[in-house]
Design goal:
Layout: E1 3-6, H1 10-21, E2 26-30, H2 55-66, E3 71-75, H3 84-88, E4 92-95, H4 100-112, E5 116-123, E6 126-132, H5 150-154, H6 160-177, H7 183-190, H8 218-222, E7 238-239, H9 243-248, E8 252-253, H10 260-277, H11 279-294, H12 305-321, H13 329-336, H14 344-360, E9 363-367, E10 371-375, E11 389-394, E12 397-399, H15 400-411, E13 417-420, E14 423-426, E15 437-439, E16 445-449, E17 454-460, E18 466-470
Parallel strand pairs: 1-2, 1-4, 2-3, 4-5, 11-17
Antiparallel strand pairs: 5-6, 6-9, 7-8, 9-10, 11-18, 12-15, 13-14, 13-16, 16-17
């Protein structure tokens, strides 16, 4: 049996061992990732000496040394570089990736080519081993995408996650692009005191800046920094006394509020109190900033512990200032790096369950309270494209009208729509490309559907246009 393992991380390393001990000796490993320090706590094939080397190469080297009769091939490219024909050469594919886009890519091609796919994944103490191809696919369950409103992140955070995202996406860039190391400046930014406070009863002045002095850039505006611009000679700061004055058209010259000095004093007190009450965390943040500046670090790297320390202490201080409960460094790293927490024991269990899935074609799930659940079939979304009929479309430059005609002949689908990914190519109201010759890239999918059914078209180069139905062997 010819086996493909995609991903040589926590699950992939364990699975390689499980397969060999179950007498599977012809194995191909695919992984374009290199070993980092953070991998060593759960990926036991690797040591400090292996850092920055390819995972797939080290796996093969160490495995062959112990089991010389194993036939292991290594591919150091991304799995998304390979077309349908690549997957068809394998009897079974084990997907051990933590990348949603790549898992979807593999799932689509295995399901289309009727190649047995076993997909494994973990999340802390939870995990699953699912069998795709017979029924269902990776895309049947819609994946949760977490988004945070910009206004909450920058001005009024209400969750610890807001503070972490702010520290990573805004504060990190602000500090290291401008080389900020001063304690007071750092704390002012954390407490939103880096821009001048404007009283509620004043109106900001608008006017064209002098040609010789222009605003630097939109990036600087977001950062709260403005270049000087000369005030127009006819401009006067105004104050509206009441709504009655608006209707009367009466405006009065603006006077500096009596409490302006008091406001400034209070804002200074706020960030100074933050330092006074959290001196240990503030000192750790400043030490971390100095270390990163000294080492000329400017890009976020989830595997750099000092960068994670910076995110952690920044988010912790900001959350305290806004009276938000903070979380520990492990959870902070998970949020900042969009990392699924990995536990070596769970990886080992899931790799074993993937072997059970291969033999039984069953699906296994480790859920809350460490319960193990087995199911005959994984969930299938009846509207997912994996339920559609399958066909291969040949040709380099093809007219949409030719596709429509051939689809009607083969599948009798009327009132259809044609999609290339998220892009609509044709429907009965949109016929702009109907007679245009469109050059389709090989190894992509087109979706043809109406409200009842659909066809999944796999694009393949060919001298002559044709569409051929693919029989489902399941």
């Amino acid at each position: 049996m010819n086996v493909l393992i995609i991903g040589c991380g926590g699950i992939g390393c364990e699975l390689l061992k499980q397969l060999y001990l179950s007498n599977f000796k012809r194995i191909t490993l695919v992984d374009n990732d290199t070993i980092s320090f953070s991998n060593l706590n759960r990926q036991f094939f690797f040591t400090r000496k292996d850092i920055n080397k390819y995972k797939s190469e080290i796996c093969k080297k160490k495995f062959i040394k112990k089991f010389p009769d194993a036939e292991i091939s290594v591919i150091k490219n991304s799995i998304m570089d390979y077309n349908l024909e690549f997957f068809l050469q394998f009897d079974v594919v084990f997907n051990c990736l933590d990348n949603i886009e790549a898992r979807s890519y593999v799932s689509m091609r295995c399901v289309f080519g009727n190649v047995l796919l076993i997909d494994g994944g973990t999340n802390g103490l939870k995990g699953q081993s699912e069998v795709y191809g017979k029924i269902g696919c990776f895309d049947c369950v819609e994946k949760e995408v977490i988004e945070y409103p910009v206004c909450s992140i920058k001005t009024n955070p209400t969750k610890y996650e807001h503070c972490v995202v702010w520290a990573k996406e805004y504060f990190f860039k602000e500090v290291f692009s401008n080389k900020i190391f001063d304690k007071n400046t750092l704390l002012k930014i954390i407490t939103n005191q880096n821009t001048e406070n404007i009283s509620e009863d004043t109106f900001p002045e608008f006017g064209e800046p002098n040609d010789s002095k222009k605003i630097e850039s939109s990036e600087n505006i977001l950062g709260g920094k403005f270049s000087e611009s000369e005030e127009p000679t006819n401009s006067k700061k105004m104050k509206i006394e009441s709504t009655e004055n608006i209707s009367d058209g009466k405006f009065y010259k603006y006077e500096e509020p009596n409490n302006s000095k008091k406001i400034k004093k209070n804002t200074e007190k706020l960030y100074k109190n933050l330092y006074k009450n959290n001196q240990s965390d503030c000192k750790k943040l400043i030490d971390t900033v100095n270390h990163l500046l000294k080492n000329k670090i400017s890009d976020f790297d989830k595997d750099n512990q000092k960068i994670i320390d910076f995110i952690y202490y920044s988010a912790k201080l900001r959350s305290k200032y806004f009276n938000i409960n903070s979380k520990d460094e492990f959870e902070t790293k998970s949020i900042a790096g969009n990392i699924i927490p990995a536990v070596c024991t769970t990886n080992s269990i899931i790799s074993s369950l993937m072997m059970f899935s291969l033999k039984s074609k069953m699906n296994y799930y480790i859920v809350g309270n460490r319960k193990l659940i087995s199911k005959v079939n994984c969930y299938q979304n009846k509207e997912c494209i994996c339920t559609y009929k399958k066909a291969i479309i040949f040709g380099d430059k093809i007219k949409i009208s030719m596709i429509i005609k051939k689809i009607n002949e083969l599948f009798e689908i009327n009132d259809l729509k044609i999609y290339d990914g998220d892009y609509l190519l044709y429907d009965k109201y949109f016929k702009d490309f109907l007679e245009n010759e469109i050059e389709f890239q090989e190894n992509k999918f087109l979706v043809v559907k109406n409200c009842q059914t659909g066809v999944l078209l796999y694009t393949k180069n060919g001298d002559k246009f044709d569409i051929r139905e693919v029989e489902d062997s399941n």
